[in-house]
Amino acid sequence: MAEPMGFFTDTSVCIGCKACEVACKAWNQLPARNGGKVPLTGQSYDNTVELSGIQWRHVKFIEQFSPDRSSGRWLMMSDVCKHCVQAGCLEVCPTGAIIRTEFDTVVIQSDVCNGCRACIAACPFGVIDINPETNTAMKCTLCYDRMQAGMVPACAQACPTHSIQFGPISELRQHAEARLAQLQAQGVSQARLYGHDESILGGLNSFYLLLDEPEVYGLPSNPQLPSRNVAPSAGLSAAGAVALGVLGLVGLRKQRMDKLAAEAREQQEGDGSHAG
Amino acid sequence: MPDSFFTASPEWRWWIVFYFFVGGIAGGAFAIAALLRLFGREVDRPLSRLGYYIAFPGSIISGILLIADLKRPERFWHMLIQSETFAPAFKWWSPISVGSWGLLLFGLFSFLAFVGGLAEVGILPRGLQALVQGGLGAVVNVLGGISGFFLAGYTGVLLSTTNRPLWSDTVWLGLLFLLSGFSTGAALLILLSWRQNLPALAWLKELDTWVLGLELVVLIVLLATVGMAVLRPVLFNAWGVLLVLGVVLVGILVPGLLHYRPLLGRLTVPGAALLVLVGGFVLRVVMLLSSEAA
Ligand code: SF4
Ligand code: SF4
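^ thats the input. predicted complex w/ iron/sulfur cluster below
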């Protein structure tokens, strides 16, 4: 296997230009939303709204303003598949469409996927969606095709502020630690890394530097694998099946006993009448 | 906010609601039929045959519903066979994978029992009776009964093996669906046979009442384990009202009462069975769609 590769996204320098979204769409030939007639959301300066089957990068705008708008702040974060080391989507996919590549990234093979959508419910980050053109599940491939040719993923190449950095995970982790130390030295006490170590799903191969709690960015604080529930859930069901079987048998036995007792009574009565 | 709210909806809607309902009935009806066949008497055979007649068509309908829900239905076979290597596709840790195989096996055993049942009444050659009688019949009934239980329960395990609100916030859904599958399977058997006054009917009604009681207990435990942070956004709304009225009242408490008091005269028995079926359906609707709406 080649060295694990991934993204480190430093949200502190993101300016929300959405160049990554455009580069991703262009390289991966993804169609525009709504046939190109993008309606304004009316609630946000973010008009591309969310990750989807035809939008594999999405720059979130977290707009926090006081009601009179005299104070406020913008947080920006270019969201993408996290290429989890322990990936829920890959775990549940029944067809084997989702694979782990030699770069330790997670890729959906469109020619295998049958659109069962188990991966959508399994991803702890809400990344995957159905692409309406292919009717298969789609998400960021971390530009698997470009990587195989030794190229940098389109989004990282397009990002003008180096908010999106691409490289070997081990190097990215060092950059991230250094950047965190720098920010903290500058007094940005809320700065933190998310997914840089094994504590989150064995590590996220697309990890982040955030300026607030993960929830503020729409990220779960303790994402988990869906399989955590299989054993307890299946165990309870199996116990229930045994209990139902026993319940049925007890009932059948009782019925049989009642019948025997009734027959015996009849016989006794019969005998009694003979004797009388 | 609980972590399950940061996820996206798979949009499993009506096809899946109906699949969970039909699959539950089919699995439950076969499990009951197998119990009767293996441990009942000769006079119970008509009722167990009825179970086979429900189970096999149910398995076919289940397959159709599942395939219809796929975005690429023509690739349904990728669930069972790897499209590149043609080796079997099986992941024991993925309920959707295990479930596909479970449904296939259930289809097979329910088909054999269906054929055996038809042979018993003379529609098919008598020799085929062996499929539900004697040693071979025991094997078909045991394996079919186990896969029937599996089919009724795995759907809840499948929902829990996600990261979605409500579904993944509890491990009791599998058991709840199993009990509901069993009670709705019993209810359909009662509904289709009550006029014939079969001897096992009393057993079936008694059993169904017990199972409904268990279902209520498990539902309460499930809601208690989910926690307020999830319940408030998911079920403290019209879905919750539907759960209380449609499932608890109509599907459990009223049929339970009817079991002890024949308030509907002659129609008490079929009426109660019908309500159990309605409750089982509403249960699937609420458990699936309330989470999808969250
Ligand atoms: S972020 Fe979601 S889609 Fe991406 S690898 Fe992890 S589980 Fe899969
Ligand atoms: S939708 Fe496709 S990729 Fe996702 S789990 Fe199903 S088969 Fe796998």
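Residues 5-224 of chain A form a domain with the Alpha-Beta Plaits fold (CATH 3.30.70.20).
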